[in-house]
Amino acid sequence: MNPSTPRIAVIGGGLGGLLCARVLQREGRPVTVFEREASADARPHGGTLELRAAFGRAALFEAGLDDEFRALARPGGREVRLLDRTGALLHRELPADGVDDGAEIDRADLRRLLLDSLAPGTVRWGRYLSTLHPLGDGTHKAVFDGGHAETFDLVIGADGAWSRVRPLLTDDSPHYSGVTFVEAGFDDVDARHPAVARLVGDGSMLALSGDRGLIAHRDHRDGHDRIRAYIAFRGSQDWMLDRGVNVHDAEDVRAALLDAFADWDSTLLALLRENDGGFLNQPLFALPPHTWPHTPGLTLLGDAAHLMTPFSGKGADLALLDGCDLARSLTRHADPEEALRDYEATMLPRSAEAAEAAARDLDNAIAADAVAPEAPHGPLWRLFHRR
Predict the structure, then answer these.
(1) In Å, how far are 130, 191, 273, 317 from 195, measured between CA atoms?
(2) Which phi-psi region, left, alpha or beta, contains residue 179 (left: φ > 0; alpha: ψ -120 to 50)?
């Protein structure tokens, strides 16, 4: 790798890759981000993120974007409720006074903030990495759809769950966790869905029993609250095909879900009956805790390095922290290869610990042999309770 001005490519324009590019540019290092999407608005990047002070927010501060983040962020609902399938409240928890461990921001707003912080032309849109060829001297030739090719001293795989860069570092690939989420949304809940609003409260609600669960979280935005609910169950990745459910027919999906939760209390089943729009099927995939041998000119960050189920509660936080740590290491060390070793020595153990915790929490919450949810204050609370 060229020790003076390495040619750096970030593959993937997600949060971690963009944050990495921002910190590199802030330190005067040239970098190019290649993103397969045609534009910043090619698809929705919805959903609310809650970033913790010691992780994602610390990375944004290091990137000089703390003021911009604060202008867009809002306090998160901090109440957490744990129920059983009869609707009985097992535990309710509120944050301690003065605790400031998280702030909510829409994923789309955070991505736009990061994009706007980069020099014009940093992101090359519509560039899907087709192949990556090691040239034997630590450099790599990246070939994109359409035949365009460039050679780089460092290629950073920030290209998500199904990374095209990862196979050059490790044979590990994502596996189905055994659990599927089906997402449902409720808009303007206090006015239009008061029963759901009362059920969820001002924060998060988890109703768990055996191999099934209902998980909901309230997003505060623009004076009109939204609730996202996740119908969770352990079973086949192809459950709709197995049961003959038409994925394009919301009422067919609804009927199948109501049948699967037929022995649950009707107050909870409002999360299946009353949603606005359809359902989004999301089988949960994860990488095993893993490592890879140092490889000159290549590394990974975010989901490309350590894909976890949402039960880690840390996906966006870790991606932003990875991007910051990698960029700072590259600017701190004169030898880029030493910088990669330093970054990986920090990132890999950190992500392995988080992945192990996510797997445990998933089994604690949605387990085939479970008869009741775990006691309050157990590891499952990391899903929504960020203390």
Answers:
(1) 49, 10, 12, 32
(2) beta
The amino acid that residue 147 corresponds to is G
pTM for the structure as a whole:
0.90
Q: How far apart are CA 329 and CA 303, in angstroms?
A: 20
- Residue 151, token pair as written in the block: 């050679």
β-strand pairing of 226-234 with 102-106:
unpaired
Retrieve residue 335's tokens.
Answer: 């030898």
Secondary structure class of 195 (helix, strand, coil): helix
Q: What is the DSSP letter of 75?
A: E
pLDDT digits (tens, 9 = 90+) for 178-201: 999 999 999 999 999 999 999 999
Terminal Cα distance for the chain, rounded: 41
Please give the DSSP secondary-structure letter assigned to residue 194. Answer: H
The pairs formed by 143-147 with CB atoms below 8 angstroms and a separation of 24 or more are 144/34
Domains of the chain by start residue, with CATH: 8-74+101-174+287-360 (3.50.50.60), 177-285 (3.30.9.60)
- Partnered with residue 33 across adjacent β-strands are 10, 123
Q: How far is CA 199 from CA 95, 184, 189, 209, in A?
A: 19, 15, 11, 17
Q: How far apart (Å, rounded) are the C-alpha atoms in residues 289 and 308?
A: 9
Q: Which of 12, 251, 91 minimizes the C-alpha distance to 259?
A: 251
HSE-CB at 89 with a 13 A cutoff on CA atoms is 11
Q: Express each pLDDT in 83-130 by its tens digit.
A: 999 999 999 988 665 555 567 888 999 999 999 999 999 999 999 999
